Amino acid sequence: xxxxxxxxxxxxxxxxxxxxxxxxxxxxxxxxxxxxxxxxxxxxxxxxxxxxxxxxxxxxxxxxxxxxxxxxxxxxxxxxxxxxxxxxxxxxxxxxxxxxxxxxxxxxxxxxxxxxxxxxxxxxxxxxxxxxxxxxxxxxxxxxxxxxxxxxxxxxxxxxxxxxxxxxxxxxxxxxxxxxxxxxxxxxxxxxxxxxxxxxxxxxxxxxxxxxxxxxxxxxxxxxxxxxxxxxxxxxxxxxxxxxxxxxxxxxxxxxxxxxxxxxxxxxxxxxxxxxxxxxxxxxxxxxxxxxxxxxxxxxxxxxxxxxxxxxxxxxxxxxxxxxxxxxxxxxxxxxxxxxxxxxxxx
Length: 347
What we know:
Blueprint: H1 2-22, E1 31-33, E2 35-40, E3 44-51, E4 54-58, E5 63-68, E6 75-76, E7 81-85, H2 88-123, H3 129-161, E8 164-166, E9 171-175, E10 183-184, E11 189-194, E12 199-206, E13 220-222, E14 238-244, E15 250-256, E16 270-274, E17 282-287, E18 292-294, E19 297-303, E20 309-313, E21 315-320, E22 323-328, E23 335-337, H4 340-345
Antiparallel strand pairs: 1-23, 2-17, 3-12, 3-16, 4-11, 5-7, 5-10, 6-9, 7-8, 9-11, 12-15, 13-16, 14-15, 17-22, 18-19, 19-20, 19-23, 21-22
């Protein structure tokens, strides 16, 4: 507790010193006038990172879970076994149908040989035509029975394959809500899988702001959870869904994200979409070196008309070359110190 009070007292004294120094006249260090660019500056809406392709994997048959081959966070390939269900009854049914296929094939062999003998006897006029027709009918019946048993065996093998739940595509396992011993039912979620190579930001946009999103809108993306310039990814395709929520009168805006190093972006991360606004003020850019960064503080020295430099906190956006965009804290026409360190040392 004492250490916290000491730290707060020290911070308060430091802030007081900063205010006193800021009130002194600025030296002859260089200054620059904040100017607005021609691009429109707009408002922002909060969004969330989501996967373009995310699947809740479920079983097609009922059965007890006897094996979980993956855990949450694992990367899987297409066709990889994810969950194993108890398939003993299905395996026995498959074995039974295979035996029936062998029996049908044996019966077909006997009927084929008998039909060939009857044809030869009929050619020598040893039997009647009716006897030959009976032999031919028995041959065709055996042939149809063999085909039916083959189809039945195929169905059994297909159903037996349902007891191995496989990945529909390559991706990352997001959630595994079941455990070994649980009962899997058709439609019950076994795990959630998503494709990390295709992500986007989705946000609810007020109806009043949708007019500015016609055509290929120049929106900007901000993901505060990423380090450095990575928190300002280049936006991809912009899509506005054609329907509105009747309760909130908002539309869904989707902006595709570029591919980034593995694990950098994850579904569920907070994001912000900056929207253009027709008739709004221009975007403000200042030299990147004019920004003073101290721990959680991001500020610039604003030079007043009487030559005094006042420290003002700002919020900055992406860096473009030697320029950085100022989102809040400054207005066009204000003058700032180009070198904040020099402005501080000259007090």
